[in-house]
Amino acid sequence: MKFNTKTIHGGQQHDPAYGAVMPPIYQTSTYAQTTPGGHKGFEYSRTHNPTRAALEAAFASIENGSFGLAFGSGLAAIDAVMKLLKPGDEVISTNDLYGGTYRLFTKIFEPFGIKFHFVGMADMQTIEAQITPNTKMIWAETPTNPMMNIIDIKACAQVAKKHGLLLAVDNTFATPYLQQPLDLGADIVMHSATKYLGGHSDVVMGALVVKDQDLADRLYFIQNASGAICGPQDSFLVLRGLKTLHVRMQRHCENGRVVAEYLKSHPKVEKVYWPGFEDHPNHNVARDQMSDFGGMISFVTKGNDFQSAIRTVERLKVFTLAESLGGVESLAGHPASMTHASIPKEEREKTGLVDSLIRLSVGIEDAEDLIADLAQALD
């Protein structure tokens, strides 16, 4: 089954009760049993729910995985992955990553005795230099948030296998439409399904997908024991969103290219970060492991002026100034004061995340309207 068909049919079956084409919203906490332990596969909705189960099967299908798990948020999904570890374990993470992930790592799990090494992952020697006998996992985002750095997933997987490490990849920016980390050797794929998978800015959710049965069983146990699940209504919304993922991503990519090229040619723009440019770091890797380059773009205005960046995002009219990304509507954000404010300034600036950086999530509107909006805001 090809990807576009998988987004609609992958892992799905018509509801056995009445043949409903879309899985119903099973808004129930518990299920009748004929005898203790005698049920139809569902006993309590923290553990299993038919609507969530349909979504988890869809997650697994589009990522070419075997097992999917749906959580109450992307951070809840990451939290479950970190609970695979124990005090004394070490994780090598990209140094350019979502601020909430950095906060979870440093403020929640470091006090429990898990050590994190934040490094650039442009080359594998940097990663290997951090590996110790206590290293258990590599955590990668690609493209990274917000600098759009590209990490070679296949090369990372080779390093991980060589040293017996788990490789987890945050695939939120690319989505499985553009790249499929499990096929490149990753062990775990994570999504903030709030973003492109849901696609309509109306739900908060996280997802994990794996191929290995033992790893899946461990994560299912953590999910059930910790309880950070999503509800059936949210499951229904994201399952509906998945059915248009392929057509939405096609337009995100088309508009992203137009916006990136416009910004690069604008006299008031100093630098544009978009992996589709040939001079973007690791562009060749992006070209090889991605089918297109996505709709996420960051840029810096000339003069590197904080106030100028604030004025620019405040003047936007079609782009909405808001947290998040990946919805059908275009969004603009100021990472230093919004999504990445939890990362210390000196750490942000090491990766290029200066106070004047603006991040765009390019939506599926008419590209001409997006360009006109950027023009009036910049000029």
What would you say this structure looks like, in words?
The structure is a single chain. The protein has two domains: 3-242, Aspartate Aminotransferase, domain 2 (3-Layer(aba) Sandwich), CATH 3.40.640.10; 245-378, Aspartate Aminotransferase, domain 1. The strands form two sheets. It has a seven-stranded mixed beta sheet with strand order 1-7-6-5-4-2-3, with helices on both faces. It has a five-stranded mixed beta sheet with strand order 8-9-12-11-10, covered by helices on one side. α3 runs parallel beside α4. The chain contains 14 helices and twelve strands. The protein has 379 residues and is an alpha/beta fold. The N and C termini lie far apart (48 Å).
How many domains? 2
Named at the architecture level, the CATH assignment of the largest domain is: 3-Layer(aba) Sandwich
Which strands sit side by side, in order, in the main sheet? 1-7-6-5-4-2-3
The helical percent reads 25-40%
Measured between the Cα atoms of the first and last residue, the distance is 48 Å
